[in-house]
Amino acid sequence: RVTLHVSFAGLLALALVRALLSWPRGHTAPLVTLLCGALVLAAFYLAGTIAENRVARGRADRATMRLAPAWLFVVTLLWALLALHERAPRLTLALLGGAIVAVDVARAARDAGAVAEVSGHLLDEAGHEGDTPVAGMVVSAGVGQLRAARHRIGVASGAERAPAVLSAVRGDLVDHLVCDTALRDE
Length: 186
Hints:
The protein has 186 residues and is mainly alpha-helical. The chain is 58% helix and 8% strand. It has helices at 2-22, 28-56, 68-83, 88-100, 103-111, 143-148, 162-170, 181-185, and strands spanning 116-118, 121-123, 153-156, 176-179. The strands form two sheets. A two-stranded antiparallel ribbon has the order 1-2. A two-stranded parallel sheet has the order 3-4. The chain is globular. It starts with a helix and ends with a helix.
């Protein structure tokens, strides 16, 4: 569990640092919105992990855990709202294109027909998981497990995401979509 929490914090911090370093001058209002949203998400996430830790160590009543689904819903909602922020597509691309996957691996994945990434799995236009260099590097739920989930919620923004979203829908990996108007109208 510690690794999960540290990874969450690290990825959120990395995304914020990358946003700050690439932020255009003179556009401070969206930056303040993004920073405040990230701080609220981080604080709420931290509060939930502290509560869970206290229950695990016997310092709090187990009844506290009945709030866990609500906590997870709020964390997911806050993450979705951040993803819909006007700078979020660049953050996601920076994480996927630079810090997580090496440039040569990303190029090989594109050459293999990858147009979308869902939970670390690369998909082609039809929504099928491709034979890419990334396939052996993924540690997450399998595509079959994702398809078997009762609710499969996708979050995306920007018209340029349309091919990736269509791939995920065609692959039966999304049954509910949270998106901005630019993507909706595409």
